[in-house]
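WP5 quarterly update. Target: UTRA domain-containing protein. Source organism: Paractinoplanes aksuensis. Length: 89 aa.
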Amino acid sequence: MAAATGVRDGTSSLTAALQDAGYVAARAKRVVHAVPADRVLAGHLDVPEGTPLLRIRSITWSKAQVAFDYYETWLRTDVVPLEVDAKTS
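Structure tokens (predicted):
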């Protein structure tokens, strides 16, 4: 992972770097909530307090059911649209 400079400079995906390091996702869970920006978030995201945001919590597990990727993020959908592409196997 230390060599995953493409992730740090924005030219490669974290998913590809994790796969290259042997972390292959078997399942993942995403929880999405609409939340108003509090004072701190509003300041970080340069929006007025109370602006609607999406809070996304994510966890990914390996085939051995070991959790290896967790994140929580707040999304401004006026800047980045949320796109969901789901399929069944």
